[in-house]
Amino acid sequence: MNKRKRTITFNAPAVLWFVILCFGAMVLNALTGGLTNRLLFSTYRASLLNPLTWLRLFTHVLGHVSWQHFIGNMTYILLLGPMLEEKYGWRTLVGVMAVTAGITGVVHTVLFPGAALCGASGIVFAFILMTSFTGFREGELPVTVILTAAVFIGQQMYEGLFVRDNVSNLTHILGGAVGGVTGYMLNRRKR
Fold first, then answer.
1. Sequence-separated (6 or more) residues with CB below 8 Å from residue 26
2. Does the chain have fewer CB atoms within 10 Å around its N or its C terminus?
3. Is the CATH number of domain 13-190 3.40.50.300?
């Protein structure tokens, strides 16, 4: 009888390191009473001469306002990220996360000067739309892509217009756009 040894593998390094960094940011934020979110893990309008302003345009995706916010985002990232990382590689996925962070950070800072933004929701929505393109072939438009985009954009527009909460629906839409464009371009080239 052949007994196979089971091992635990670090199967998606970009995704796992991102989750670890977000968890570390949550712990630091809890230990500092919110100081690290304000200082490092939220983006908001501040002097362009302050180097932290530029850093926060990217690091805001590591911070979360609550454990519920953190768990919700990490669940989607852990669910979708490994499949995307296996298909496209860790470098591409890190690039998608960085571009999403930069675009959402800059747009939020310019359009909403009085509000801070933190969380990985833009990356979550980039992953959702990017995933919908995994079965895409040149010259075809899968119904799943159409439905995902319609439901996603419709929900975000509705919530942006009629629901008053602290959720940045524009960030979700921008993240989805980054993921959709990236998914389309990567799959168009491979076919």
1. 63, 64, 67, 70
2. N
3. no
